[in-house]
Design brief:
This protein has 217 residues and is an alpha+beta fold. The protein is built from five helices and eight strands; from the N terminus they run ββααβββαβαββα. It has an eight-stranded mixed β-sheet with strand order 1-2-3-4-5-6-8-7, with helices on both faces.
Length: 217
């Protein structure tokens, strides 16, 4: 377990690289890759807002503004085999101890993948890289994950990553589902604590080993 590290107020997320995926800090130069990824089959984005090609510029501006405000460390997900941008993710909602400003909890969210990258194992390794950095470099006590309570596919993927379901927060945040602008959603809340991280890490590493060997996930 890493000791708590000093985290800059703007929540700098460094480059994180695995065998299958590379998480690059989001920059304006990623616009074309994100636009191409977002315009693949969009039928699976029932509860997740994913920018259209025409919205990518504004999406990047908004994410970088959140980064500048210290709220978010946004990434693009890059498939290492093809070199293509295949989605996005982020650290966000940092919580800090009032006595010294040190980080004790962080959320992993704003995650979406192009249709061609779903089910490929990239998401498994991306979560592994993010969790490992949060617990072992930043020394957090907790990582949160939330999703629309109706999103069974997302809930299953989060649970499979080793997170514990904590319950549903009713009317917790804005809905991203099509046709629900201005409405609130119920959010399913999951977490991993620092005590659980070694077991979670071992489980993710087993899944990644299966990916390498070509066995079913």
């Amino acid at each position: 377990m890493g000791s708590s590290a000093v985290v800059p107020p703007f929540l700098e997320g460094p480059l994180l690289e695995g065998e299958f995926v590379r998480l690059e800090p989001l920059e304006p130069g990623h616009a074309a890759g994100l636009a191409a990824a977002a315009e693949e089959d969009r039928s699976g984005y029932t509860y997740t807002w994913v920018p259209s090609a025409g919205e990518v510029g504004g999406y990047i501006d908004a994410q970088l503004a959140r980064r500048g405000a210290g709220l978010l460390a946004p990434y693009v997900q890059v498939d290492r085999v093809s070199g293509r941008v295949v989605g996005a993710t982020a650290f966000w909602d940092p919580r800090r101890r009032p006595e010294d400003g040190s980080l004790f909890a962080i959320e992993v969210g704003f995650t979406w993948l192009a249709a061609s990258a779903q089910g490929s194992g990239l998401n498994t390794e991306a979560k592994y890289l993010l969790f490992r950095h949060a617990f072992e470099a930043w020394g957090v006590a907790r990582v949160d994950l939330k999703t629309d309570a109706r999103n069974g596919r997302s809930r299953a993927a989060i649970a499979k990553a080793g997170a514990t379901f904590e319950g549903v927060l009713r009317n917790w945040s804005r809905s991203w589902a099509p046709g629900e602008a201005g409405k609130l959603r119920d959010s399913a809340v999951f977490s991993i604590t620092d005590e659980e991280w070694p077991s979670c890490r071992a489980g993710l590493e087993r899944r990644l080993a299966e990916l390498r060997s070509g066995r079913p996930r």
